[in-house]
Design goal:
It is a single chain. The protein has nine helices and eight strands. Helix content is 43%, strand content 17%. It is globular. Strands 5-4-1-6-7-8 form a six-stranded parallel beta sheet. With 265 residues, the chain is α/β, with parallel strands linked by helices. The relative contact order is 0.15.
């Protein structure tokens, strides 16, 4: 079965990515009660034995040690540090992280023109390693925000890099666009520069507007939502709504993660 590699870029991309992996496991646990390593879960995870070798999926193969097919990129350590220390931190090896500690200052050109060339080989090596562990690499899922510096600048650099090095692999980009009243004065410029690049380098771009996510969140919170129970946009795997248990941005991240999960096969 084809495999996908998720590339999370920037603070927003990694926050959404972290929630995405939670939901992937919840969905798998719901339908795979025997905890087998089958083709379905191999789409996003490797099963690794005690020697570090990848185990071939089968209906009788038990889960041993799951590793996410992912590369996490950020020029600040905060969010990736939280992921490393979270309950899901064991899904990622050190060579899957590409990090710095200086940030991009909400400047597209810093992410694209400075950090892109500087971390070119490190990012490429991390992606190649994940690709080598795939039987059939079907697509790259890139998650980023186009309003900041790292997600927009370095994110578009990564997509261009993937087009150059993996031309035949589908590149699906999920980009969060800033709100109309975004407090970052450079966000409109970052967005325009990002989209200008993505038009040529991505096979599909799914822009998701912050204002739309907030609107969905408010509808659910106010009880005006008419969607049935179990909706991927509003409910957890057990069917219970969780809007009131998190900050709005946490739930907005969950909406995007659920949307991405329901677009996979």
């Amino acid at each position: 079965m084809p495999q996908n590699i998720v590339i999370q870029v920037g603070q927003c991309g990694n926050q959404i990515g972290s929630r995405f992996w939670d939901l992937v496991l919840q969905e798998h646990a719901k339908y795979n009660t025997k905890a087998n390593y089958n083709d379905s879960i191999s789409t996003f995870f490797r099963n690794v034995d005690s020697k570090g070798s990848t185990i071939t999926p089968s209906e009788n193969q038990r889960l041993v040690n799951l590793k996410a097919r992912s590369v996490l990129v950020d020029m600040e350590e905060g969010v990736i540090g939280q992921i490393r220390n979270s309950r899901n931190g064991g899904f990622f090896d050190d060579d899957q992280f590409v990090i710095s500690n200086s940030g991009s200052g909400n400047n597209w050109s810093v992410g694209y023109s400075i950090y892109g060339p500087e971390y070119h080989e490190q990012i490429l090596d991390a992606v190649r390693k994940q690709a080598e562990d795939c039987d059939v690499l079907d697509s790259f899922f890139i998650i980023n925000s186009i309003g900041g510096g790292t997600g927009s600048g370095l994110g578009t650099y990564v997509v261009e890099l993937l087009k150059e090095e993996f031309e035949d692999v589908y590149r699906f980009v999920s980009s969060i666009s800033p709100s109309g009243d975004d407090h970052v004065v450079t966000s409109p410029y970052n967005s325009i520069l990002s989209l200008s690049s993505l038009i040529d380098s991505a096979d599909c771009v799914m822009p998701i507007e912050n204002d739309a996510l907030l609107y969905i969140h408010d509808r659910i919170q106010k009880g005006n939502d008419t969607r049935k129970k179990g909706s991927a946009l509003s409910d957890n795997a057990d069917g219970k709504r969780s809007i009131l248990k998190h900050k709005p941005f946490d739930e907005m991240n969950s909406i995007v993660a659920n949307l991405l999960l329901n677009m996979t096969r």
